[in-house]
Specification:
The protein is built from twelve helices and nine strands. With about 325 residues, it is α/β, with parallel strands linked by helices. Helix 1 packs across helix 12, helix 3 crosses helix 4 and helix 5 packs across helix 12.
C-alpha cells in the first residue's frame, strides 16, 4: 500500500503503478465500510474541490459533491457556459488561479481532440491535484468503480475471469470512447481475459489497444478483438455492452450515426445473457438507452449490477480525493 500520493493528478490509472491503483481500492473498500456503519470520516475538512463541467452530468456531479461533503469538505459546481471560461479564460489561467483558490480541480471535458489535452494543460499549471471526471480518451473513475464492482462479485483475484467489453447500439447520441478505453486498459492489468467486441467501424485508439495487449501479456491475462456480438457473450463472466461513436472511422457525427444504424440488432437482451455464464453480471455506466441498447429485462434483471456499479463511483472518488487532496 502506498502512502505518498498527496498532490497526484488522476487523469488515467494508466499513469499510476499497480501498487498505487491497489491502494485506491483498499481505501475505497474501507470508506465504503465506514459509510455503511455510519462512521465519520471527515478526512478533508475545510478542503474545497472545484468541479468544472463542460458537459452535463448526473452521477458524476452528485457523487463528487456527496463525496466531498462526506469527507468534510466542499465541492463547487462550475458550469463552463455560465462563467468566463466561455469568454476566454485559458487552461493555464484556470490551473494557476483556481489552483490557488481550491485544494483540487475536477474537470469533465469530452470534446474529441480537446478534452484530454485541456485537462493536462490545467494540470500543468495547477499547484493542486487535477481529477479527470471524463475526457475524450479516459473515464478513470468509471473504470475504477467498474473494477471495484467486479471485485465485489468475484473476489480480488479475477485472473482468468472473462470480461466482454462490447459495443451496443444506441440512438441518443454518439458517445465518447472513454469508458471502453479506460476499462480495457485497467481490467487487463488484473489478469482478466478481456474481449473487445465491436463492429469493424467502431475501433478504439490504437495506442489504447496496444496498451491493453501489453497489460494482458504482463498480467497473464488475454486481450482479443471480436466482431460477433453473440460470440462476445458466450461464456463471459462480465458483460458490458454499451454504445460509443465511430470516432476512429469518422468525426462526422451524422455519418457515425448512419454507420451505427446498420447494427440496431446489437442489443443486450435475455437471449444474449443466457449465453454468458450462469453467474454472469451485466454492467453499464448509465444512462442506457432502454430497449434499444439493453432490454428492461436485462438491466432490471437478476444479472444486473448497474446500481452497485453506480454507487461505487462514490467510494472510488472519495478514495482518490482523500489520498491526493490532503
Amino acid at each position: 500500500m502506498q502512502t505518498h500520493l498527496t498532490g497526484r493528478d488522476m487523469i488515467t490509472p494508466d499513469e499510476w503503478t499497480d501498487d498505487e491503483v491497489n491502494t485506491i481500492f483498499e481505501v475505497a473498500f474501507d470508506l465504503k465500510r465506514k459509510r455503511a456503519l455510519g462512521e465519520p470520516h471527515a478526512l478533508l475538512r475545510d478542503k474545497v474541490l472545484a468541479m468544472m463541467f463542460f458537459f452535463s452530468s448526473t452521477r458524476t456531479r452528485v457523487s463528487f459533491e456527496a463525496g466531498m461533503a462526506q469527507l468534510g469538505g466542499h465541492a463547487q459546481f462550475i458550469e463552463s457556459r455560465t462563467t468566463q471560461i466561455s469568454h476566454g479564460d485559458t487552461a493555464k489561467e484556470i490551473g494557476e488561479i483556481v489552483g490557488r483558490y481550491c485544494d483540487g480541480i475536477a474537470i469533465r471535458q469530452v470534446d474529441w481532440g480537446v478534452g484530454n489535452q485541456y485537462i493536462r494543460d490545467v494540470a500543468e499549471a495547477s499547484r493542486v491535484p487535477v481529477l479527470n471526471m471524463q475526457d475524450d480518451w479516459y473515464h478513470p473513475f468509471q473504470a475504477l468503480a467498474d473494477m471495484m464492482t467486479i471485485f465485489e462479485r468475484f473476489g480480488r483475484d479475477v485472473r482468468g475471469k472473462t470480461l466482454n467489453m462490447s459495443w451496443a447500439y444506441a440512438s441518443s447520441y454518439q458517445k465518447p470512447l472513454s469508458v471502453p478505453q479506460s476499462l480495457i486498459t485497467l481490467a487487463t492489468r488484473f489478469g482478466m481475459n478481456v474481449r473487445l467486441t465491436r463492429p469493424p467501424e467502431f475501433k478504439l485508439m490504437p495506442e489504447i489497444m496496444d496498451l491493453a495487449a501489453e497489460n494482458a501479456r504482463k498480467s497473464g491475462g488475454s486481450f482479443e478483438v471480436m466482431d460477433n456480438f453473440d460470440a462476445g457473450f458466450a461464456g463471459a463472466d462480465v458483460v458490458y455492452p454499451k454504445s460509443w461513436g465511430a470516432t476512429m472511422t469518422t468525426t462526422d457525427m451524422e455519418e457515425s450515426k448512419r454507420i451505427g444504424d446498420q447494427y440496431k440488432d446489437w442489443i443486450a437482451d435475455e437471449r444474449r445473457m443466457d449465453m454468458a455464464k450462469e453467474h454472469a453480471i451485466y454492467m453499464h455506466c448509465l444512462p442506457a438507452d432502454r430497449n434499444i441498447e439493453v432490454t428492461d429485462g436485462v438491466i432490471d434483471g437478476p444479472h444486473s449490477a448497474v446500481y452497485d456499479e453506480a454507487e461505487n463511483r462514490l467510494h472510488v472518488q472519495k478514495a482518490v480525493m482523500a489520498l491526493t487532496m490532503r
